[in-house]
Amino acid sequence: MDLLSAARDVREMAYAPYSNFKVGAAIRTPSGEVFQGVNVENVAYPEGTCAEAGAIAAMVAAGYTEIAEVAVIADAPLPVTPCGGCRQKLREFAKSDVKVTMATTAGETLVMTMGELLPGAFTQEHIDEG
Ligand code: THU
């Protein structure tokens, strides 16, 4: 499955009545499973969750803990990059060479690696006992 299409398809389901900014995300595991997520906002604004977080939650609930590729899409003037918190959430399961495709519904794309999006990441290696 084309990962960007999976993100585009699910975006319609986003619950974003406060920002009107619907985001779709899709992640693929090394074995080829695809999980989708959307942003889910809340009347208590900080309680909203991002599309990436939804996709990660679906993946973990299905028993997978490794991300091989990420796609994110929104109806925006330029490709939407994952917020800082989502970079850290993705990095938990995605190594630094994982490809992240960011896109607009108009067809513009931006491709970066996880490491480019989150250089100097705080990872599990930092808490390994010496
Ligand atoms: N949002 C995402 O879901 N993912 C991103 O990568 C950027 C921002 C959501 C959060 C909020 O519901 C809306 O977009 C506006 O910030």
Characteristic terms for this protein:
single chain; 130 residues; alpha+beta; Cytidine Deaminase, domain 2; five-stranded mixed β-sheet; 5 strands; binds tetrahydrodeoxyuridine
How would you sum up this structure, described in words?
The chain is of the alpha+beta class and 130 residues long. It has one domain (3-123): Cytidine Deaminase, domain 2 (3-Layer(aba) Sandwich). It is 25% helix and 27% strand. It is built from four helices and five strands; from the N terminus they run H-E-E-H-E-H-E-E-H. The protein has helices at residues 3-11, 51-61, 84-91, 114-117, and strands at 23-28, 34-38, 67-74, 94-104, 109-113. It has a five-stranded mixed beta sheet. Strand 3, helix 3 and strand 4 form a beta-alpha-beta unit. The longest helix is centred in the middle third of the chain and has 11 residues, at 51-61. The mean pLDDT is 97. Residues 16, 19, 21, 23, 39, 41, 48, 50-52, 72, 80, 82-83, 86 line the site of tetrahydrodeoxyuridine.
Percent range for β-strand residues = 25-35%
Largest sheet: 5 strands, mixed
Radius of gyration (Å):
14 Å
The strand order across the widest sheet is 2-1-3-4-5
| Share of helical residues | 10-25%
| Strand and helix order | HEEHEHEEH
Low-confidence spans:
none
How many distinct beta strands? 5
How many separate domains make up the residues?
A: 1
CATH fold-level name: Cytidine Deaminase, domain 2
